[in-house]
Amino acid sequence: MSKSYYCDYNATTPIAEEVFHAMEPFLKGHFGNPSSLHHLGRGPAKAVREARAQLAALLGASDGKEIIFTSCGSESNSTAVFSALAAYPDRKRIITSSVEHSSIRKLFRHLAKKGYEVFEIGVSAQGFLLMDELKRALNDQTAVVSLMMANNETGVLFPVDEIGALVKAAGAFFHVDAVQAVGKHKLNVKNSTVDFLSVSAHKLYGPKGVGALYVKTGVPFQSFMIGGGQERGRRAGTENVAGIIGLGAASSLALRDLDQEIARLRKLRQLFENTVCDQNRGVTINGDVNRRIPTTSNLRFSGIDGEAFMMALDQRGVCASSGSACLSGSPEPSHVLKAMGLTDEEANASLRFSFGRFVTEEDVLAVAAIIRETLQYFRSFESGSVPQADGRIVS
Ligand code: PLP
Fold this sequence. Notes:
Bound molecules: pyridoxal-5'-phosphate
Structural class: alpha/beta
Helix content: 40-55%
Oligomer: single chain
Order of helices and strands: EHHEHEHEHEHEEEHHEEHEEEHHEHEE
């Protein structure tokens, strides 16, 4: 393999140079515990405060105190939902969508077993939330509505402001899983109805193992991690100082470049999709093309086995992703694409290409050329034989 083309930025992003440089001193010399009162603790404590302000600026939060650092987006999601439930012990209805990330989807299914009345709102064929269904599900017994801002598989954006107005009219808490939106979409939580918002550093050129939860001032909060008084008593455990500094630096970088990167990635994705759709028959874009984050392109290659196609692309240097979950050794079709009405076969014929900061025009054209060549190879076996990733032909 000569060159690697990373098209899986929604899975994780490489750490940006600026982020690495900001973190480095806290991995080496500045090892003090931010809770220590001596001078070796004060430096890290100050740096953590600065990181909090950097993330608050990216989110448009009014105050760094609204940010709680966590270990990942999944922890932020659980913390928000459990906190909302604790504030409304008598309300038993909880609402989410049918296309959420497993950290919410499985949490809500777990809560259903504990006696909560769970509503999973459906989506249109374009992956857009069915607002009428949401309106019907909301009532004064609703404790929390948890919805993603941008879908990790299709990139489709939900109308957070419109949803928030409905949620507030029902008096429920509103949690937004913005893990795929932060750094790729403009945010302003200050002027929004969002109570809780989840962030994950490794989706925006920060390190893995650090996330954050925005909690609007005045919203009741119950700690998920019990122990020391870190994070103003809201999340026990010695801070992942280097990770937090990384998230802060990544936030500043994202804010600095947001407008240019959104415009650049939109153009790149357009070029990619136009090239792939023009050069090949039977390619369809999954998801609402006008309401997506600019990083994501989910493509359906009719009649193709997506897993085998993904592995064949991998052998040619292209890292993409299939939305299927591998359960007990056999791939299960993506629940997101199934919720959009795709058949198992259509869902399994779909791949996600997600782009980011280090992808160039030359890269997307090279990837499109590799897709074309690989697809031609696959299509040449359409008589019934199926090429496998290792080159074998199975009929
Ligand atoms: N929410 C969404 C939409 C995601 O895409 C992901 C990760 O892919 C998560 C939550 C979980 O984030 P983390 O890996 O930081 O736990």
